[in-house]
Amino acid sequence: MAEDQEVQQEAGVNGDQIEGTGRNEETQEENRWTDELAERLNILHNATMRTGRVTNADLYEAYRVSLEAERPNRIHMFYAFGLVLFVMVATPILCEVFQFLLGVRCFVPNNYLVWEATRPISDCRFCRGVRGPLVLHNLTREQFAPFAYSSQPIIIKGAVSHWPAAKKLNYEYLKELYESVPGALDEDCQFLHFRSDFMTLRDVFQMSEERAKFADGNQPWYVGWSNCHPVILSELRKLYPRPHFLPEDAEMPNTDYVFLGYEQGAIMHLDYIPRLMWQAQLQGNKSWVLAPTPECDQVCHSFSFYVEPGDAVLVDTRIWYHGTSIPKGQFALTIQSEYG
After folding, report:
1. Domain ranges of the chain
2. Whose CB has fewer CB within 10 Å in the chain, the N or C terminal residue?
3. Cupin-like domain: from which residue to which, for each copy (predicted)?
4. Is the pLDDT of residue 49 over 90?
5. Across the chain, what does the average pLDDT equal?
């Protein structure tokens, strides 16, 4: 047993000696190659100096420039790495922010920018030869039938002057109605703040009495919203019936729009809605500007017109760019809906 242990110890010692010898040989080989490389570089250096074309100053300058060139490369690598890291971190955040902004009605109403960028090219026959609205006086359904689904803008004078809304509907009535119906101001109905500083319908009805009446020293305001709350819609439609001139089989939506305010109006835009539009001018005057889509500028014309209380306006706002404004100091209120 003792003899076996001695043999193992001796073998271990011999193994260590062999391993150490191997490492020494590797080190000696590396040193030999290093010495040989240094000798060759020295020979090259001396040969270069003997030509007389290169001086020690030139070699030093080349060495200095190489060091300076290395530093910017490291800096550029650092910036590149930082940029890649920023993109990796910021991209999902920016995507979330962009999606949020598109979903906020007050920021980009109804994803308008997306719709505008993807709308189909217009057939310019809708506006060729049109230089103004067709003005009709109050008429029957049968008389209106030839124009019911035309792309020609139409004004029907005095068509809604007999509606109860022309006398009863105003800011105070709407404020009292909405505040009296539980949950009406919390309904997720579309709200259009235009150029005002109001973000919700609740903000509109919480403004001061002086601001609501546009008293001296106050800012003008103009807003619109869909009255999609069923109770509110039912109460308001008691004040304005279905326009008598519309086709009997015309479909009506389950929401209408209210627009009211002072001096301001809507900027030029298209409406991305499924049907034709009618608007009843109940109070005040309003100016309209219509323009063809850009691809039809060469064959069609822009124009403007003016509507008065009691007038009905019919415009295919899906194909006509349109903007509105209210005369300085005046209040205007309109009801708008669709048919088709």
Report:
1. 1-44, 123-339
2. N
3. 142-296
4. no
5. 82
